[in-house]
C-alpha cells in the first residue's frame, strides 16, 4: 500500500485519525511533529523558542521527505503546506485534507498550551486558516469535512474513498 498523508489545520484530528486508519489498513503510523522532536531531541515548543519558525520548517521538510513511502499513515504538522516545495512533493502522493471549520478548531484547541503558533497572541489564526485553505487544496487529492464526525467515521470514509479510486 502506498503511504497515506493526512494534512489539515491544527486541531483537525490528523493524529487521531491516523491511528484509526492505521488499524483498519494494518499500516504503521508516522507523525512529522514527533519525528522532528525525536530527531532533534527538542520539543516543537523549544525549537520555536530557541531557533524560530524557519528552522522548524527546515526540520519538518527533512522529516516529510524521509517518511516511509509504503504501508504507513503519516500525520503531518498543520503548517506543512507553508513551503511550496512541500506542496509539490505532497501533490505527487496520496494526500487527504481533513477540513475543519474555525468554530470546531477553536472548540478543540481552547485549552491547548503546547502549540506555539496557536498560543502566539500576535498572530491572527483565523486569517492563517483562510490563507492556508488554498495550499491544503493544492497539496491534496481528497478533501474530507471533519465537523460532526468522529475519528472512526472519518477513517471509514478515507478507506472507502481510496477503494473507490483505486
Ligand atoms: C503548526 C502545527 C503543529 C506543529 C507546529 C506548527 C502549524 O502541528 O507542526 O506547532 O504551523 O500549524 P499540528 O497541526 O499537529 O498541531
Key traits:
166 residues; alpha/beta; globular; binds shikimate-3-phosphate
Compile the SSE list and pairings.
Blueprint: E1 4-7, H1 14-25, E2 28-31, H2 32-40, H3 44-51, H4 53-65, E3 72-75, H5 84-90, E4 94-99, H6 102-109, H7 125-139, E5 142-145, H8 151-164
Parallel strand pairs: 1-3, 1-4, 2-3, 4-5
Helix pairs in contact: 1-8, 2-4, 3-4, 5-7
Bound molecules: shikimate-3-phosphate.
The site of shikimate-3-phosphate has 10 residues, from loops.
Could you describe the 3D structure shown?
The protein is α/β, with parallel strands linked by helices and 166 residues long. 52% of the residues lie in helices and 13% in strands. The chain has 8 helices and 5 strands. It has helices at residues 14-25, 32-40, 44-51, 53-65, 84-90, 102-109, 125-139, 151-164; strands at residues 4-7, 28-31, 72-75, 94-99, 142-145. A 5-stranded parallel sheet has the order 2-3-1-4-5, with helices on both faces. It is globular, with a radius of gyration of 15 Å. It binds shikimate-3-phosphate. Shikimate-3-phosphate is lined by residues 10, 14, 33, 44, 77-79, 115-117.
Brief account:
The protein contains 8 helices and 5 strands, in the order E-H-E-H-H-H-E-H-E-H-H-E-H. The protein is α/β, with parallel strands linked by helices and 166 residues long. It has a 5-stranded parallel β-sheet with strand order 2-3-1-4-5, sandwiched between helices.
